[in-house]
Design a protein that fits this description.
alpha+beta; Alpha-D-Glucose-1,6-Bisphosphate, Chain A, domain 4
Length: about 140
């Protein structure tokens, strides 16, 4: 299964960056390709969200569950429904020498092997670019406030 892992160093406390990442409804305010994130269900330890994003100007929508580990500063997410068969991963937040290292992992699967062979490398590049964009936007937001 294809996997993307990206990291960024943020000059802000890990708890602050983690709290920003948990507030996903705010993502469209500072992440250019995220059109909307709406909470469908909210629980003390997790949420269900509906996402609308743009990839190469094409709209993509999905429903995901995000589980929060407040003590471990970790967010695990997984696809409930959407265009891919599998879309899951985690955000982790670790403090090192006054910086927070945020790592975003994404595991995904088309579910259609012939389609994956045709556009797999392009999709992998787009998943990486999108992950890097999200991390860069989170970094800017965390360091600004």
């Amino acid at each position: 299964m294809p996997n993307v892992e990206c990291s960024v160093s943020v000059a802000a406390p890990a708890r602050h960056v983690y709290t920003l990442a948990k507030d996903q409804e705010r993502f469209p305010q500072f992440m250019p390709d995220v059109e909307s994130v709406s909470v469908v269900e909210r629980y003390p330890t997790h949420i269900v969200t509906r996402w609308k994003t743009l990839v190469e100007e094409a709209p993509i929508e999905w429903l995901e569950e995000d589980r929060f580990n407040d003590d471990g500063l970790r967010i695990d997410y997984n696809l409930i429904e959407g265009d891919l068969d599998r879309f899951e991963g985690a955000w982790t937040f670790e403090e090192h020498d006054g910086m927070t290292i945020v790592t975003l992992t994404v595991d995904y699967d088309f579910g259609v092997p012939t389609l994956a062979e045709l556009i797999g490398p392009t999709l992998h590049k787009k998943v990486r670019e999108n992950s890097e964009m999200m991390l860069a936007a989170l970094k800017r937001e965390a360091e600004a406030g």
